Amino acid sequence: MYITEKVITNIIVIIIIMKSRKIIDEIEAVSPIIATILMVAITVIMAAIIANWSAGIKAPQQPQSVGLDISRLSQNNVTVTITSIDPPNAIVSYVNTTFMNSSGNTTTRTILGLGAPALGANFLPDVNTIYVSSPTQANVGDSATLYTKDYDEFIIITVRFGDGAIKTIYSQKV
Predict the structure, then answer these.
(1) Integer Cα distance of 93 and 165 in angstroms
(2) Please, where in the chain does CATH 2.60.40 lie?
(3) H-run or E-run covering 158
(4) Looking only at Cα atoms, what is the longest distance across the chain?
(5) What is the pLDDT of residues 100-124, one digit of tens each?
(6) β partners of residue 100
(7) Most CB atoms within 10 A, among 60, 131, 141, 156?
(8) Least confident interval from 44-58, 64-78, 109-123
C-alpha cells in the first residue's frame, strides 16, 4: 500500500488541529479582579448613557391660553380686551389681528403687547390702545379698539407667548 500526498496532507492537518485544541484548552479566562473592574466600568458607562438620554427629555409644558372679551361697539368698531392669561405667570408677547374684507384682502396689526401702538399713535389709525408708551408684553386688562370699516368680513386673533409659541385664539366672521 502506497501513501499518497493526499493522505500525508490529511495527517498533517489532523495533527495541526489536535495541537491547536491543546493550545485552546490551555488558555485561561480573565482574572476575577479584572472581570470585576470590567463589569463596574460597563455599568458606569451604561448609567452615564441613560442619564444623558433622560436629561434630554423635557417635562410636558402646561398649556397656555388667553381669555378675550371681544365686543362690537358699533358697525365699524370692535374692542378686544384680555380677560385672563393662563397660567398666570405665562408671558404674552403680543396679540395680532388679521382682518379680511369682502374682496379677500387682508391686513394684520399688532394690537396688544410688544409692537402695539401707544395712545395717540398716528401710524395705525385703525387701532386705538390703552397704552401710554410702547409696552413689552400684553397683560390682563389691556384693551384695544379696532376700526374695521374697510375690513369687516373676517377677523383672526393670534397670540405669541414668551416661549415663541403662536396660537390662534379667535377666528370668526364678524
Answers:
(1) 10
(2) 65-173
(3) strand 154-161
(4) 124
(5) 777 777 778 788 888 777 665 544 5
(6) 106, 154
(7) 131
(8) 109-123
